[in-house]
Amino acid sequence: MLQPVGVGHKTLADYTHLVGRPLIEEINELAAELKGLKVLHLSATAFGGGVSEILYTLVPLMRDVGIEAEWQVIIGREEFFNATKLMHNALQGNPLDLSPSEWRTWEEYNEMNAQTLDEGWDVIIVHDPQPLAMRRHVPDKAKKWIWRCHIDLSTPHPPTIERCVPYIEEYDGAVFHLQEYVPDSITTDGVPLHICPPAIDPLSPKNMALSPEDAAFVCDQFGVDVDRPLICQVSRFDPWKDPLGVIDAYRLVNQDMPEVQLALVGSMATDDPEGWEFFNSTLEYAQGDPDIKILNNLNNVGSIEVNAFQSQAEVVIQKSTREGFGLTVSEALWKARPFIGGDVGGIPLQVQDGTTGYLVSSAEECADRSLKILREPDLGKQLGRAGKEHVRKHFLTPRLLRDWLGIFKGLQ
Ligand code: UDP
Predict the structure, then answer these.
(1) Helices (H), strands (E): how many in the chain?
(2) Nearest residue CA, atom 3 of ligand 1?
(3) Which pLDDT score is estimated for 269?
(4) 236 CA to middle of ligand 1, Å?
């Protein structure tokens, strides 16, 4: 059985002072024409990673403006998630395709989940490749189907993307974060394409304003010395997020500034079997350095704690080597933190190098920029302020809601 996800209640009007009245009015006008539309979001997990983060806000806001939105999570066992993790990596460019039996496993779980789907939807939005094949089995259960891709498909492993394209082309639309992420093999002749980057919720516990004292209080509980500088990266334990590169950068900074500390905060997603293995490799790499805190959700690190670490850090890093969008980037910028990110994927969309943060391509560059920020607090403040305004304009959930309503309108 597909699992319905319970989401709280949110009110669009509460966001007016953050995004401005014109956007709220535009949303209300669009929504007036779409009242009662039955929309289902299907995703692979309700916990961990960017997709669930987005849906916990987008779904309640869709409901608030009159869309009958639901969110359900597909069921899968380890064999399915092992296959879909391989698929995710291959679609991001890792040259290893699924074996014939792994492809069969993916198909079988998609068919099984499709059979338990309710009918009568106006629009079903399928998030990411895990449930991509469901539509083929039950196309009549919704009037329209949209595939929402959250990963960077610009340089996929050819056999893996070739296998996916026929499924994608059966949809009534495909949505990507950036034009560059659309693989050459998908064209507008095959499927209508939409470009819209994701967004963060400025009022969620993860992003709401936390006083410096409260942030320090929370970080102190995890053993951080709140009187010494802190560098922090928040992300899943995944090689593409490069936590080992962050440790390398920290060690370089540490040579010039021995008082600096590092926190690597990462949740373990239920659909990510590799997570634990890589978590352990990261622990090993830190070699027991007491100034490196490696924390995950099993240490009780939830949204408020992520907020506290991002708010407390003098420098927030997201040193990814591949990144679909990187919600953590906007999360840090929204808190007006000086930010350093890998020059890949969706990070440059959020970080204008030298204006709203720094973009780097190596541990050395990352260390160099960190030291610059740590030594020049005024520079950090300036970058942080500019970063926050950039996020306010482009990456808060009401803008994403507006984009989705526009897509629904185009389907009518
Ligand atoms: N996250 C979290 N706790 C953690 C690590 C990550 O809540 O310990 C959240 C993070 O704040 C962000 C999301 O998980 O909201 C990750 O989204 P992102 O787009 O950065 O990366 P993804 O995991 O989707 O690749």
Answers:
(1) 16, 13
(2) 267
(3) 66
(4) 6
Note the pLDDT tens digit of each residue in 296-347.
887 889 999 999 999 999 999 999 998 989 999 999 999 999 999 999 999 9
Q: List all residues whose CB is within 6 A of at least one atom of ligand 1.
A: 49-50, 53, 206, 234-236, 265-267, 297, 301, 306, 324-328, 331
| 3-state secondary structure (DSSP) of residue 261 | strand
Q: Whose CA is closest to atom 2 on ligand 1?
A: 267
Does residue 311 contact residue 232 with C-beta atoms inside 8 Å?
Answer: no
Spatial contact of 97 and 133, defined as CB atoms under 8 Å apart: no
Give, using CA atoms, the residue closest to atom 9 of ligand 1: 49
Supply the DSSP symbol for 245.
H
- pLDDT tens digits, 52-101: 999 999 999 999 999 999 999 999 999 999 999 999 999 999 999 999 99
Answer yes or no: are the C-beta atoms of 233 and 246 closer than 8 Å.
Answer: yes
From the CB of residue 112, how many other CB atoms can be counted at a distance below 10 Å?
Answer: 16
The structure tokens listed for 380 are 């950090």
Q: How far is it, in rounded angstroms, from Cα 9 to Cα 61? A: 8
Domains of the chain in start order, with CATH, are: 3-199+396-411 (3.40.50.2000), 212-394 (3.40.50.2000)
Identify the burial level of 44 via C-beta atoms within 10 angstroms of its C-beta, where 0-12 means exposed, 13-18 middle and 19 or more buried. Answer: buried
CB 183 within 8 A of CB 376: no
The residue assigned the tokens 């869709």 is 62
With a pLDDT cut of 90, the percent of the chain lying above it is 92
